[in-house]
Write a structure and sequence with these properties.
mainly beta; four-stranded antiparallel β-sheet; globular
C-alpha cells in the first residue's frame, strides 16, 4: 500500500520557522521526483516546491523562493520542507505528492498537514 504521511505542521508566529516531513512507503521513493503542494480552503492547490529523484535539482514558486528549502533523504524515504520567515499568506494545508515540477502528473498524495502562521 502506497503511503505518504506528512508531519511537522502547526501554529507559528510570523517570521518563525517550521520543518515539514513526509514519510513515504509502498513504492520506490528514490525513483520519483517529489513536490510540496499547498491549499487554502476555497482555493485551488498551489505548487510550492519540487525536487528530482536524486535530490540534485530543486524548484520553487516565486512566493517561497529564498524562504523555503526542499530536500530529501532517499535512505530514509523521507521528503522535507524547511520553511523560514513564514508569513500569514503561507497558512494552508501542505501536501507532499509525487511529480517534481509545477504541472507534473501526481500519482500519489499524502493526507496533508496544517500550517497556520498567525500572531
Amino acid at each position: 500500500e502506497v503511503q505518504l504521511v506528512e508531519s511537522g505542521g502547526g501554529l507559528v508566529q510570523p517570521g518563525g520557522s517550521l520543518r515539514l516531513s513526509c514519510a513515504a512507503s509502498g513504492f520506490f521513493f528514490g525513483t520519483y521526483d517529489m513536490s510540496w503542494v499547498r491549499q487554502v480552503p476555497g482555493k485551488g492547490p498551489e505548487w510550492v516546491s519540487g525536487i528530482n529523484s536524486v535530490g540534485i535539482n530543486t524548484y520553487y514558486s516565486d512566493s517561497v523562493k529564498g524562504r523555503f528549502t526542499i530536500s530529501r533523504d532517499n535512505f530514509r524515504n523521507t521528503l522535507y520542507l524547511q520553511m523560514n520567515s513564514l508569513k500569514p499568506d503561507d497558512t494552508a494545508v501542505y501536501y507532499c505528492a509525487t511529480g517534481g515540477v509545477r504541472n507534473a502528473p501526481r500519482s500519489y498524495w499524502g493526507q496533508g498537514t496544517q500550517v497556520t502562521v498567525s500572531l
